[in-house]
Every structure is written in structure tokens, then in C-alpha cells.
Amino acid sequence: MALIANEDNSIFYGKPTDGWRLAIYTVIFEADTRAGRLFDLALIFIILASVAVVVLDSIASMHARFGVLLAVLEWLFTALFTIEYGARLVSVRRPRRYASSAFGIIDLLALIPTYLALLMPGVNALIDVRVLRLLRIFRILKLTEYVEEFGALGRALSASRRKIFVFMSFVMLVVLIMGTLMYVVEGPTHGYTSILVGVYWAITTMTTVGFGDITPQTDFGRLIASIMMLLGWGTLAVPTGI
Questions:
Q1: Which of 75, 162, 200, 220 has the fewest CB atoms nearer than 10 Å to its CB?
Q2: CATH of the domain at 187
Q3: What is the distance between the alpha carbons of residues 212 and 201, in angstroms, rounded to a whole number?
Q4: Are residues 10 and 95 in the same domain?
Q5: Structural domain span for residue 211
């Protein structure tokens, strides 16, 4: 499978024929070589470590105690990802194709937040810091390029996309109808202040989560809830056959 992926990359991105660009291409894009495997393993470690830094930085106590260290590590990882992204672009004959590909966009998303905070110092005052952290978490998506099972999962989902679409359409139809019905039956008096609240209740009930923050108070409402629970129990079994 790795060999097939390498051949696809060489055709789509344009594999250099010789020189230093070919040497870089071999390391970065060809996982069936020793250097390529070592590069992939090192990059996987860096990706996981960078995500761990983002997660730790979101904890107030860790940020207060190790904020400077976490910031230094963040810049270190950003520098490494920048070098990697640049190396990918210069090592192929069609850099625009890589830049506009799914993996190229993910690579870019891994860089944007840190540079955005540097170029626009006031960005944290305008944008919730959690948004920047969310963008940094996109780095975990870079792993999909190095784990073959992700590719197999993607192909399986693609092959079943019509069935998945029909299933999700049915689920959305049910929660919309049942949520609207519950809104009419229970009403604002019992906490169902809008159809959206009713839909929220229907989703939590169908998925058997049942937070309990909003519950039916009337007999008819409890009947609807019982039907919804049975529907949820049966509906959740459907995806196993897709």
C-alpha cells in the first residue's frame, strides 16, 4: 500500500528526476525507504508532542507554572513544521498541487495560529484564545498521512457514503419531527422554549445520552420520550451493518 501511495504522489505532485530535490523527496514522500520511515516516525512523535503542548497549555495551572516553557516548545514545533512544509513544496515539481491538497492545507493550518499571534499581537483580544488552540489541534490530522489504517477507513467511508447520507438524513428527520412535537406538547412552561431545544432533547434521547437537564413533565410527553428511546435503541444498531 505504501508503494502505491508513493507512486500516486510521484505522479500527482511531480517527482524530481535527480539532484538535491530528489534526495529530499525520497526522505519526505517515500515511506518504503529507511530514511523515509525514520522521518515519518520522527514526525509522528513531533506531532503528538506538539498536540500535548497545546492540551497542557489549555490547563490554567500548567499555563501559570510552565507558560514560558510551553511557549518556547510551541515556537520550536512551529519552526519544525515550517521547515517540513517548505521542504515538501521545494522537493516536488508541482508545489501548487501539494499546497492545495488536503495534506497541504492541514500542514498550513498547523502553522497559521502561531504566526497569526506574532504578526497580529492584538489578535488574542479579538479572537478567543481557544480558537487558536483549536486550529493548533488540527496538527493531529497530519497523522492521517502516515498511518495506512486512516486511508483504509477513508476508503470504507467513501464506499458507504450514500448509505451514511440516507441514515443521517433519517436521523435528522426523526429528531426534527420528535423535537417539534415535544415543543408543542410540553411548551416553554416545562423548559422547551423553542424547537431547537426540542431537537436538542431529541438528539440526547436518541443517542441514549440523556443529560437530564430537560425532561418531559406531561404523560403525553413521557409517551413521546419512550418512543424516542426505543427509536434510538434501534437506530443506533443500523450503522453496524453499513
A1: 162
A2: 1.10.287.70
A3: 9
A4: yes
A5: 161-233
Burial (CB count <10 Å: 0-12, 13-18, 19+), residue 112 = middle
In tens, the pLDDT along 96-115 reads 999 998 788 888 877 887 88
Cell digits for 75? 515556537
6-57 pLDDT tens trace: 556 667 788 888 889 999 988 988 877 888 888 888 888 888 888 888 888 8
The candidate with the shortest Cα–Cα distance to 25, out of 15, 12, 38, is 15
The C-alpha cell at 200 is 436538542
φ/ψ region of 192 (left if φ > 0, alpha if ψ in -120 to 50, else beta) reads beta
| pTM for this model (two decimals) | 0.64
Structure confidence by residue, pLDDT tens digits, 32-42: 788 888 888 88
Angle CA(136)–CA(137)–CA(141) in degrees, nearest 5?
A: 115
Using alpha carbons, select from 141, 76, 84, 87 the residue that is nearest to residue 109.
141
Q: What is the distance of C-alpha 71 from the center of its chain? A: 23
